[in-house]
Amino acid sequence: MRIITADETGLVKVVRLESGECLAVSAGEQARANAVRAVCFDHAAPAASRHRASDDFFARIHVARAAGAVETWDVSQSERDGQTGGCALSARGTAVECAAAPVALACLPPASSSSSESSRVLTCNGEGEVQVSRAAPDGRSNDEAERTTLSIRGPVSAAVADGDGGSGLALAAGGKENDLKTWDLGTGKCTWKAKNVPHDFLDMRQPVWITSLCPLAAATGGGGGLQQMVAGTAHRQVRLYDARAQKRPTHSVDADEHGVTTMAVAPDGREVVVADTAGLVRVLDLRKMKWGRRFEGPAGSVRGLAFHPTLPVLACVGLDRMARVYGYHSREQKFQVYLKQRLNAVLFDGEEGEVQVAADGEDGEKKKSGAKDGAGAGEDWSGSEGWGSGEEYEMDEADSSEEEEEEEEEEDSRRRTATTQVSVRANGGKPSVGEEDSGGESSEEESVDDEVDARAGSEGGSSSDDDESEESEEEAKPPPTKRRQVQRTTASAKKPSRR
């Protein structure tokens, strides 16, 4: 299994997760000006780029850099000496010149069904400058006549686009004190504008700062465009919008204590994974609007989330320089790779195959059997647990985790009680130092126990007789409550009279 990562120094890497090996690294100077802000696949690439059906295949990606350029790269792989270890990143040149510091990048299908036409690349920067250009197949820049520019209201922190071959192009964007809006890029008009939530209990206006957007129709593959969306804010809210129902959010829930940085909707469209600036990655059930399982590991702001197209696997990258891959339903961390630079984006390259659990003695490392390996070797993720199985996964893991914690607490209390009993018997009925109580009661109990021990030792019996005598004495002793009452009465009788 391979992933494609991009970092803030401008490097694009192809990493094999099983071995942690970096198969290919993009060429170029490492600089902040060349930082990669977004990465996406080219929808006009051949079908062989998504399925390993031949010996040679490639995936075409677009890379948006902070300096204001969108580059096209081919990720190719070929079998060498019977092994699938060859990989290369080949640059096709600058496909689009765009505004500096883009915050959104989208690759849209061609306007017509003709296979000769290339896809369209949309970029949007923080000031609201939107540009739609046709990606040249040879990597050369396009003419000005093939570009469409539009200026929308800024500032813009997040934007998503939607459009198919027969309909117009729509854009949804929002930012700091700039609530969610949708635009028709064909006419340049605002088609829908969201309304802020009501004032709080102090009758104060709620601040607006949208930092992440995800359309629900794109995840499920259905129609509807940008009518249903999920928005994350810097004020730790996750809001669900339905343009067909109302302008205000239909549902709104609070996340943890930190702002939302990025989100990813599951391919089945029922859940959304939300990440924040502190490394918390959690699942939100969109049907119940309740928080579910959590993915442990990230130790910093999460900048990129990606789902595998066919397997229930989630990739996560961020400022901690680690690329992590989790089993989506099990929450188990399958792979972890250190990549040296702070990462901004991640993609699965679509390589198919089976993933099997390593044998004992391999330090728990997960390995992947190639397309030619046996179908029954290891854990098969492409079976009933895939996205296309139609099986519903209810979010009961949170409840089960609470029950497990309660059981662990009960077991710990039983262990402590058993340990206390053993220590008391080992000390001849005398409690240990940590278990003694302060006051006169403990001293009186110790004197009584010492007298019993001395009396038992003077008899000079065997060890078995001593054990039997100790057990009989313990049975003859009154209950703890009655003993405390007698001891308190004796202590009070010993106190001198104030008169």
TrEMBL record:
GO annotation, biological process: ribosomal large subunit biogenesis
**Which residue spans adopt a coiled-coil conformation according to this UniProt entry?**
none
- What's one Pfam family the UniProt record gives for this protein? WD40
Q: InterPro entries annotated for this entry?
A: WD40/YVTN_repeat-like_dom_sf, WD40_repeat_dom_sf, WD40_rpt, WDR74/Nsa1
Q: Name one GO cellular component term.
A: preribosome, large subunit precursor
Q: Where is there biased composition of kind Low complexity?
A: 372-384
For bias kind Acidic residues, which ranges apply? 391-411, 434-452, 464-474
Disordered: where is this region? 129-154, 357-499
Specify the protein name: Uncharacterized protein
